[in-house]
Design goal:
Layout (H helix, E strand, L loop, with lengths): L2 H9 L20 H6 L8 E5 L2 E8 L2 H12 L5 H16 L6 E4 L4 H7 L3 H12 L9 E2 L12 H8 L3 E2 L10 E9 L3 H12 L4 E9 L3
Parallel strand pairs: 2-7, 3-6, 6-7
Antiparallel strand pairs: 1-2, 4-5
Helix pairs in contact: 4-6
The protein binds zinc ion (ZN).
């Protein structure tokens, strides 16, 4: 630990990225209790299919994972993203070895991004990309402010709600690319599928998806 890190640890004692417990040993960002009980501790996670696209699900959206993602979303703890990104990156690499050449993410609307100051999916994508020594590329843009998917009841309504909500403003960024498309939480998958479809329509060669956490199907 450098002197700078030691001072930072005094000022901001390290907390578990998942449950928020204070940690004495700033090891890998999570407390022993969370480490021993994380769903999918093997690192490979689970493979699902969303709208015909394969999606790596790093962790199950429950208990301390839900708590950690909630903190990432609604409080100002972007440093958690670094810890979470390791799980996301590991699951993606194990499910899709050599299967992508560009990392991108599901965008939030400019207004929501402005209100919160950052976009949690972008943050996760940037931290995951860093682990591979590359940068996440913003390719998609949200052009329509649909209702939050959590307020829409049926899956047909959810699909309609995200239809035409996303676009690729610069198709040259998508053409011929093999994308890894990242989001934080997978619920029905209709947002992820709409974004993946949008990348393909813009000329992408392929799209595989990855999320930090997947809700019960
Ligand atoms: Zn914990």
């Amino acid at each position: 630990m450098s002197a700078g890190e030691a001072i930072l640890n005094l000022l901001f004692p390290p907390k578990c990225a998942f449950c928020g417990a204070l940690m004495e040993e700033p090891a890998d960002g999570l407390c022993p209790a969370c480490r021993s009980s994380l769903p999918y501790p093997s690192g490979k996670g689970e493979l699902r299919t969303v709208g015909g696209f394969p999606c790596a699900v790093a962790l199950r959206y429950e208990a301390m994972v839900r708590q950690g993602v909630h903190a990432l979303k609604f409080h100002d703890h972007p440093q958690r993203a670094r810890v979470f990104a390791r799980y996301l990156a590991q699951a993606s690499a194990e499910q899709f070895p050599g299967g992508f050449d560009t990392v991108t993410f599901v965008p939030v609307s400019l207004w929501r991004n402005y209100r919160r100051g950052y976009d949690q999916a972008q943050l996760l994508a940037e931290e995951a990309a860093k682990l591979w020594g590359v940068s996440a590329v913003p390719v998609l843009r949200k052009i329509r402010n649909n209702r939050p998917q959590s307020t829409v009841k049926t899956s047909a309504e959810r699909r309609a709600n995200v239809l035409d909500a996303y676009t690729v403003p610069h198709p040259e960024l998508a053409k011929g690319r093999r994308f890894l498309l990242i989001d934080d939480v997978l619920t029905t998958g209709s947002t992820m599928a709409a974004c993946a479809r949008c990348l393909m329509d813009a000329g992408a060669e392929s799209v595989v998806c990855a999320v930090l956490a997947g809700a019960e199907k």
